[in-house]
Design a protein that fits this description.
The complex is a heterodimer of chains A (about 120) and B (about 170).
Chain A: E1 2-6, H1 10-22, E2 27-31, H2 34-44, E3 48-51, H3 60-68, E4 76-80, H4 85-94, E5 98-101, H5 106-124
Helix pairs in contact in A: 1-5, 2-3
Chain B: H1 7-21, E1 26-27, E2 31-32, E3 39-49, E4 51-59, H2 61-72, H3 81-100, E5 108-110, E6 114-121, E7 132-138, E8 141-151, H4 157-168
The chains are: A alpha/beta (about 120), B alpha+beta (about 170).
Chain lengths: ~120, ~170
């Protein structure tokens, strides 16, 4: 399984990679903003994306909207400091499947990843 | 400054540091900043929308190095891009969480973080906005959060109704 991490903070990508490694996922593609992610996502064909909201060049919400124009199926988890209810609704409407507010514990991120992948597997069955 | 815009930062900084670093933060007495207190590392976030201004986390070098090591799970060399990235992400999380705790209905956006590194630097701000400085104590050392923000008047129908009722009475 390939997972794409889209976050302008290398520190945050490293924290997410450590959580994914604990879950047995090591095939990771990294992007530092929405533009970078758009340029990589077609070739990378990830099975799951973790996307930050506030990033330079192209923010996460714009990336999700652009990505969803051609890909409705690949699950996206937004991992962001944007915690207001209105923001969460906006993200879900744009096509986000799950939502994690920073700061998060490794257990919470693991749980969200597992439940998102389980839903994907159930819908594919 | 309305305490409803200051308390969220206290809650947020304790939440971020306890969750991501397992580091309890004790909060000192907030004061209006006067004069310049020099620091070695500062992470800066701008706010725009219904609340405008800046939020700055400022550290002495020793404290910043310990905090970043806890956050990253390893020592990170001072004055590297990775070190600056970690400081930026901390102020990003503190500011993002705080704005979610602002009074309901306030629409606020935060900028991408900037990080200033330099011995004994200080950060200048808009002179017309008072800066609230909150001392923070940890086992890694002491640092401060400086909040210089102002809120636009809220279009609050409930408050307007209450005010109207008060006038009638």
């Amino acid at each position: 399984m390939k997972i794409m991490l889209v976050d302008d903070s290398k520190t945050m990508r490293n924290i997410q990679k450590a959580v994914l490694a604990q879950l047995g996922h090591s095939d990771i593609v990294e992007a530092c903003d929405g533009q970078d992610a758009l340029s990589k996502v077609q070739a990378a064909k990830p099975d799951l994306l973790l996307v930050d909201w506030n990033m330079p060049n192209m923010d996460g919400l714009s990336f999700v909207k652009a990505f969803r124009q051609t890909n409705k199926a690949t699950p996206i988890i937004m991992v962001t400091t944007e915690a207001e209810k209105g923001r969460v609704i906006e993200a879900i409407k744009a096509g986000v499947n799950n939502y994690v507010v920073k700061p998060f514990t490794p257990d919470l991120l693991s749980q969200r990843i597992q439940e998102t992948l389980a839903k994907k597997a159930a819908s594919a069955a | 400054m309305d305490p409803n815009y200051i308390k969220p930062f206290i809650t947020s900084i304790q939440n971020v540091f306890s969750t991501m670093l397992q580091l309890p933060v004790s909060i000192g007495e907030p004061t209006i900043k006067s004069g310049q207190q020099p620091f070695d590392v500062s992470g800066i976030i701008g706010m725009s929308g219904d609340v405008t201004g800046s939020v700055v986390l400022s550290f002495p070098r020793d404290c910043a190095e310990r905090v970043v090591a806890l956050f990253c799970g390893q020592q990170v060399a001072f004055e590297t891009s990775d070190f600056n990235d970690a400081i930026g992400e901390l102020v990003n999380m503190v500011s993002g969480n705080a704005k979610a705790l602002f009074p309901a209905g306030r629409k606020v956006s935060i900028s991408c973080p900037s990080v200033v590194v330099g011995a004994k630097h200080s950060v200048a701000r808009q002179s017309d906005v008072p800066c609230i400085q909150i001392p923070c104590g940890t086992d890694c050392g002491d640092f401060v959060i400086e909040i210089a923000i102002k809120s636009k008047p809220a279009a609050d129908p409930a408050a307007a109704t209450h005010a109207a009722a008060s006038v009638k009475a």
